[in-house]
## 1
Amino acid sequence: MNHPAPAAAIRPRRPFPAELLTALQAAFGDRVSTAEAVRAHHGRDESPFDPQLPDAVVFACSTEDVRTAVTLCARHDVPVIPYGNGSSLEGHLLAVEGGVSVDVSGMNRIVSIDADDLTATVEAGVSRKTLNDALRDTGLFFPIDPGADASLGGMAATRASGTNAVRYGTMRENVLGLTVVLADSRVVKTGTRARKSSAGYDLTRLLVGSEGTLGVITEVTVRLYPQPEAVSAAVCAFPSMGDAVRTVIETIQLGVPIARVEFVDALAIRAINRHSNLALAESPTLFFEFHGTEASVKEQAEQVQSLAAEHAGSGFAWATRPEERSRLWNARHNAFFAMLQLKPGCRAVTTDVCVPISRLAECVVETEQDLRGSPLPCPIVGHVGDGNFHVAMLIDPARPDELAEAERLNRRVVGRALRMGGTCTGEHGIGLHKMDFLIDEHGADGVDAMRAIKHALDPRNLMNPGKIFSYTA
Ligand SMILES: Cc1cc2nc3c(=O)[nH]c(=O)nc-3n(C[C@H](O)[C@H](O)[C@H](O)COP(=O)(O)OP(=O)(O)OC[C@H]3O[C@@H](n4cnc5c(N)ncnc54)[C@H](O)[C@@H]3O)c2cc1C
């Protein structure tokens, strides 16, 4: 063991009866696996935690498959861990009590694209890139873009966002409805394709962000957007992080409808240059993207360029051709893996705080000062238009002292964000790693209210147990 999961998540494994395996094999044939390699792949995510293997993996192809797997597991009191694309970062997928990983990546049908209503319904295993490929000839697109090519079910389950959230919102704003298999095997459809509804409790919003702890999502209905008539992108370097971030704050406060604005610090720029063969200046940098009509894109860009100049931004470089833009944004999307190459063999402990935009400069600058005193390489990137930024603390997984240092820094970053009225996680979710911070953020009574919902919908704690909060107070 190099990097065991946090203490709260070290739990006794539940028995996995032979009768359950026999029943799963009868139902799924070669779509159930107990092979060590398959279980190892499903018992980990992109967090630095050591894997904790499920007892078996079922590859589901339909809502009915998921219902069957959940029914059989419930009959034997065995946990179910929904699995999308495995790209989560907080230990979400570790089978801390054992159980069956239900992999929905084979549920990859586009159910419908309703161009006139600007909606699409997809099976939960469809990835964001697959959906956008299917939309290519419709003039529409789906904007939510976590760095990984995550599944729509996983994105709904983690309430994901990405570089476009500053303009288009997160999964919270963009999921209209879900089909979900609950712990007692009932199949429930939430929401409609209408753009709004006041009909009862909002089960869609409850399930979005539930991290697999309330049910397995099998279908997702999302909003789509017209592809903008004009798009332009730019990069601009700044003498300091504070200058870069203040440019962003003023851009947002002025109401410029910017589509993307990403911060990348000097160390992360070095990593990106090496990884993507670019030659960007190794200084704190903002990546911008503007969407709209030709005239509005020009106007937005001029406004932002003049704000950047007031903060000593230099070398404002434009990328208007689609291939230049893709090169720039692919480089930004690959930043996580580029940063890992700064320290061969390392894993990243990532922070994910989000603060009110007015406190962003203070939070980033204090964090930068804090990190300067640390022996760990800690590049910073962020979706700063939302007040959200990530520190990737690069640790040698064989060095407990490095892990302890990363966790010390992590606690300080989160403490600072909470003091400033922010959250411990803007987009990655709680998983295992941030369970203590959830209590700091919402208070014991707030977490108790969440626990009451979990008890009502999953009284035997079958769905992804040991995540978000402990089942007993
Ligand atoms: C390089 C990189 C960059 C990233 N950038 C971002 C970013 O910018 N923004 C962001 O938000 N995230 C980001 N992430 C994190 C990750 O991509 C998201 O959390 C994503 O939403 C996870 O989707 P997935 O399909 O991989 O889910 P998984 O990792 O498979 O699962 C994540 C959680 O959702 C549950 N789950 C999965 N599928 C279902 C389902 N069908 N029903 C119910 N529960 C389910 C799982 O049980 C688990 O708890 C990044 C990750 C990496 C590796």
## 2
Amino acid sequence: MLLTLPGIYVGCAILLAAVLGLAMGSFLGRVAWRLMRNEPVLAGRSHCDTCGHVLFANDLVPIVSWTALRGRCRYCHARLSARYPASEFACAALYVSIVICYGLTLEALQMVGFASVLMVLSLTDLDESYIPNQTIVAAIVIRVLFIVFAWLALVVHVPVQAVFADPAAHGIVLMDAQALGFDDKPFWDPTADASIVVLDMLRTSLLGAVIIGVAVVVLALAMDKFLGRSSIGGGDMKLFAVAGFYFGARQCLFLIVIACVLGILFALATQNRAGFSDDIYRIDQAEGKSSVSNCADEASQGPVEDEWPFLEEERVPASKGVSRVFPFGPSIALACWITMMVGGPVTQWYLELL
Ligand SMILES: [Zn+2]
């Protein structure tokens, strides 16, 4: 989509997406951190997790600050988690991939918003094995805003190519204006009323959320019965329903399969890691809520995966009274991103096989 534009525009768009992604990655990492500690998400200055010193602009330059300070706080020299540069880089990569796939459209903006929410809930799920309701609400609001603004844009005759990356996917027929004797820009079939397009999109979204939501609840109940323990968490079910709201039921079948495969791979990969034992977890009640964190040595945190404890119920001492479930959210989030990228063509392909 984007790549059909002249090279200079492509370069600028990608650079802009990368810079914005780095800055947003930094911000979203902090949003996740604050959500986990019940701090106001937007109010208050950024501060060091350890010494509480307020961080200034030169401490907050994405990736650069962390690298320049060799991963330590400028003020107390405590080691700073490698998740900060990692999430900044991941966010930049997400934004660039979305701009390449969706071009400079309103739909790209929607996906950037959704990807940002996925980023936050992945961080909280990896850390605390829960998906905050605020992220679910934010995702729904972003989708609803997109539908409303898409309708407004079509009503005031904004070119349909600036709204949707693939107008045909929304049942919009592009007419060849040149063949009709007008200018050389294609325009969309004026008989396709804006409200019909948008109502259709809204119906697909709502049906998708309901069908996928119900399907996942049924699947979870069956798995709970089979495994004899809680399998898919409430937050995961809500996230699946939100994915249905974004992608519709058809694409979500693909999404569920991908999420399950990734979840199994993630579980296997983390299960095989050596050195996991109960004593590397502590129950941190200092903030008045239960959380488990890797505290073998706070000052010697290794690469990012090392400090995101994958948490299985049986690995946490039962005596501590904390029930942990495997964090499935990041796998669902990654499946959402894969669906964003290739969901349309893949769904087309398997529907043709039927
Ligand atoms: Zn500090």
